[in-house]
Design brief:
single chain; alpha+beta; eleven-stranded antiparallel β-sheet
């Protein structure tokens, strides 16, 4: 993942950017943040309903009527709706983001850039577990993007444990960009109602997605994520220069993992790992398509949409190891 991010940015960065990255490392590396939480059924139930999945597994209860039973394994990626940000309103950034691992001004705009997750296959997290999350700042690297923009790439590591020990290690990469001063010009793209690319051959499977303002609001509420790019169209257009509300990176990641799970012979299977990277945003009301390739225990998934110019592009990709 670090190699992939290096392809997107140069290590050359101004002294101010380097100093702010170093300051973040000094501030946040003193001690890890440790939190405990009961993995309640409500979060998993609500997530499944947001994903339009009435059952968590084929042999479990209809989630419109009953919550999942205690002891039910959490599907891969569902841990992302637990250990949500815990901050008072005046402790959030101006855009609503959790700023625990954010650099100082002017690097206020955060983008979920990618990461990797490794699971302990013999110890899945389960509904009813008391889990412990330990979060560490691993790095803060000043970079210059290919377009000449100063950025800081922040990597954090989250380990989740239950009574049996380690359950998973989740490493996340965030890109922080500088604050926009004044309204940013919005470049309107070409509207297209055509579908993204079809499977190239019979070995590929596909699944279509189209998030709505309602589905994105529900996911923001469930994850206690106040980042305005996910629910305020006015903020997106007038401040961030997005044409519409932005789809959450974690929501796309969960959908990719559910797609992987649905093509397994055993839907209770847990992967060994996933490495993923976000390369372009998806927006509310936009049709996009996941294409899945499997080869000898490895699965490649790419989410295809359209750029503002109307060209097909990959917005997110992931490699899953069974």
């Amino acid at each position: 993942m670090q190699h992939a991010l290096r392809r997107l940015a140069s290590s050359k960065a101004p002294s101010l950017t380097r100093r702010l990255a170093d300051d973040l490392l000094k501030k946040a590396q003193d001690a890890p943040i440790v939190r405990k939480q009961f993995l309640d059924a409500n979060q998993a139930q609500r997530l499944s309903l947001i994903l339009n999945r009435p059952r968590m597994y084929a042999d479990t209860a209809d989630l419109r009527q009953d919550a999942p039973a205690s002891g039910t394994p959490l599907p891969p990626g569902y841990h992302l709706v637990y250990f949500t940000p815990a901050a008072l309103p005046d402790e959030l950034g101006n855009d609503g983001t959790d700023i625990t691992f954010s650099p100082s001004l002017p690097f206020t705009r955060r983008m979920w850039a990618g990461g990797e997750i490794e699971w302990e296959k013999g110890n899945p997290l389960r509904i009813g577990d008391e889990a412990t999350e330990t979060t560490r700042l691993l790095s803060a690297e000043p970079k210059t993007s290919r377009t000449g923009e100063d950025i800081i790439i922040v990597r954090v590591e989250k380990t989740l444990e239950n009574a049996k020990g380690l359950a998973l290690v989740d490493k996340r990469d965030w890109v922080f960009r500088t604050k926009l001063f004044g309204p940013s010009p919005l470049k309107e793209g070409k509207e297209s109602k055509s579908q993204p690319p079809s499977p190239q051959d019979s070995s590929q499977k596909y699944r279509d997605f189209e998030q709505t303002p309602v589905s994105l609001f529900r996911f923001s509420a469930l994850t206690f994520n106040a980042h305005q790019i996910h629910y305020s169209r006015q903020w997106c257009r007038e401040v961030e220069s997005h044409p519409d509300i932005v789809v959450h990176g974690p929501l796309n990641l969960i959908n990719m993992l559910d797609f992987w799970r649905d093509v397994q012979e055993n839907e209770y299977m847990i992967p060994q790992s996933i490495k993923y990277r976000a390369t372009a945003p998806f927006y509310a009301r936009e049709k996009y398509r996941a294409l899945l390739d499997r080869d000898d225990g490895k699965t490649s998934i790419k989410l295809w949409g359209r750029s503002r110019s109307g060209e097909f592009q990959v917005g997110m990709m992931g490699d899953v190891v069974d």
